[in-house]
Design goal:
Elements (H helix, E strand, L loop, with lengths): L5 E7 L3 E8 L5 E7 L3 H9 L5 E6 L6 H8 L3 E5 L15 H14 L10 H33 L13 H8 L6 H31 L6 H7 L7 H11 L9 H6 L4 E6 L2 E7 L5 H11 L10 H7 L4 H23 L4 H21 L2
Parallel strand pairs: 1-4, 4-5
Antiparallel strand pairs: 1-2, 2-3, 6-7
Length: 362
């Protein structure tokens, strides 16, 4: 593509789009407001501008449909990370027109950070993953409601084993309160739990089939070679991170998912704080949960050996080094009396680096 002739910044909403257009030759700024939610007329209007056109809009609830349609029409369209868009500290007036103009100015200056636009199939699979995560959270809350309802009325599971097992579920079904209204509330709460379990299992079964897709399985199978990373975790991480090769260094993955310490440096002093918690919260949770498995001495059990079957030797070596490295880190931080959560966040950051090495290895 030659030198950009038209720069366009778009402030996209559900029912309107505010556009700021800069002619590269004259430097003249034009504004246009497009009403409606149809993507096709907007793409046609973008295509009517003097080519080559380069446009952008901020990522948000309107999704990636506009970017995909524009790229299919041969228009360079970037989706911008809102958290990394430069803002003036003293700016107190915010309008759609100003936002669109600010975007086009920053786009021309090269000051914007674009996010990766997933394919339609990849975004659909990611939505299934996130749907299961939402059901998991709803199930946890529903179970808490059941247990707290019982506790308020002095009913406590008598066995010392874990709850929400088959035996515990049978015990729950036998409980009665002697009040019709209360029995109705309790039955409704139990039915909610059972319904959410069925939904969770159905989504998990679908995800296990999605993971075996031709374009996903090569990377998912490599990630499954690590302790604490089975099919659903591997698929979730792969879909949230996307193209692993876009990270130049292993440490970039930890920064992308917000597992690096924050830093406040001024003059001669600097102070490290908690992790930044940027990026995908779901990917960060998966890494943190998987990292807890590395508090045990390195070993390869039957389940892990089955997951590692038929994988290249260099991938298995990366996974084994991860076990050794993360266990040594656990012992070192434990000896220094580091808080368990702090130590686990550090292990999760290192685990992300090893996963990147396995995903990008030849």
């Amino acid at each position: 593509m030659g030198v950009t002739m038209t720069w366009i910044g778009l402030d996209v909403h559900a029912r309107s789009v505010e556009a700021s257009v800069v002619d590269a030759v004259s430097g003249e700024l034009h504004r246009r407001r497009v009403l409606g939610s149809e993507i096709t007329p907007l793409v046609e209007w973008l295509g009517s501008m003097p080519a080559p056109v380069r446009a952008c809009y901020e990522a948000g609830p309107t999704g990636y449909g506009l970017a995909r349609a524009a790229r299919a029409a041969g228009i360079s369209m970037d989706v911008i990370a809102p958290s990394k868009t430069p803002r003036r500290a003293g700016e107190r007036i915010k309008t759609d027109r100003r936002d669109a103009e600010h975007l086009v100015r920053q786009l021309m200056a090269g000051s914007l950070t674009a996010v990766r636009v997933p394919s339609l199939a990849e975004e659909a699979a990611r939505d299934v993953v996130r749907a299961r995560e939402q059901v998991r959270r709803d199930l946890m809350r529903a179970r808490h409601r059941v247990s707290k309802l019982l506790l308020r009325h002095g009913l406590v599971y008598p066995r010392s084993g874990g709850t929400w097992t088959h035996a515990h579920r049978e015990w729950l079904s036998r409980q009665r309160f002697g009040e019709a209204d209360l029995d109705l509330v309790y039955a409704d709460a139990l039915a909610t739990v059972d319904g959410l379990i069925a939904r969770r299992d159905a989504l998990a079964e679908r995800l296990s089939r999605i993971a075996q897709a031709e374009e996903l399985w090569p990377t998912v199978s490599r990630l499954r070679a690590f302790r604490g990373v089975d099919t659903l975790t591997a698929l979730g991480l792969h879909l949230e991170i996307g193209d692993w090769t876009r990270f130049e260094h292993a440490s970039d993955v930890g920064a992308y998912v917000g597992l690096v310490p924050s830093l406040d440096q001024s003059g001669e002093g600097s102070r490290s704080g908690g992790i930044t918690k940027t990026g995908s919260q779901y990917a960060r949770r998966l890494l943190v949960e998987a990292a807890w498995h590395y508090t045990r001495p390195p070993r390869i059990g039957v389940t892990l050996r089955n997951r590692q079957a038929q994988l290249p030797a260099h991938i298995l070596q990366i996974a084994w080094r991860a076990q050794q490295r993360l266990y040594r880190m656990h012992q070192s931080m434990r000896d220094r009396a580091k808080p368990a959560n702090v130590a686990n966040a550090a292990r999760a950051r290192q685990l992300a680096c090893f996963l990147w090495a396995a995903a990008t290895a030849p």
